[in-house]
Amino acid sequence: MAAPTPDEQARPALRILDASATPEEVAAVVAVLSALGGGDEAPAPRRRPEWSSPARAVRRPLAHGPGAWRASSLP
After folding, report:
1. Rounded to an integer, what distance in angstroms lies between the CA atom of residue 70 and that of residue 65?
2. DSSP label at residue 44
3. Distance, CA of 46 to CA of 43 (rounded, Å)
4. What are the E-state strand segments in the chain?
5. 16 has pLDDT over 70
6. Per-residue pLDDT tens for 30-75?
7. How far is residue 75's CA from residue 66's CA, in Å, rounded to a whole number?
8. Phi, psi of 16 (to 5 degrees)
């Protein structure tokens, strides 16, 4: 993310247009907007370690036919 320019830093994040707004109303709007977030990016999804991968539970088909007993121990 690029650094904000001086114009962006000087601009207020919230501007009250209604002069009759009470401090409680302004606080309520600020609380709702801060609860929505949006300031930070979402963290990157974590990778699943290979040792806990569901694919490890799937077995290769067993070899059959002549010499199958030899092939059963070879990768």
Report:
1. 11
2. P
3. 9
4. none
5. yes
6. 888 888 876 677 788 888 788 888 887 887 777 678 877 777 675 5
7. 17
8. -90, 120
Q: Which of 28, 34, 44 is nearest to 13 (CA)?
A: 34
Nearest Cα to 24, choosing from 73, 32, 55? 32
Residue 10 has pLDDT above 60, yes or no: yes
As given in the structure block, the two tokens for residue 27 are: 């606080």
pLDDT band at 6 (very low <50, low <70, confident <90, very high): low
Asked if residues 63 and 72 have their Cβ atoms less than 8 Å apart, the reply is yes
Check residue 71 and report its DSSP letter: H
List Cβ<8 Å contacts ≥24 apart for 54-58. none
Contact criterion met (CB below 8 Å) for 16 and 33: no
Q: What is the pTM of this model?
A: 0.38
Q: How many Å apart are CA 75 and CA 73, to the nearest integer? A: 7
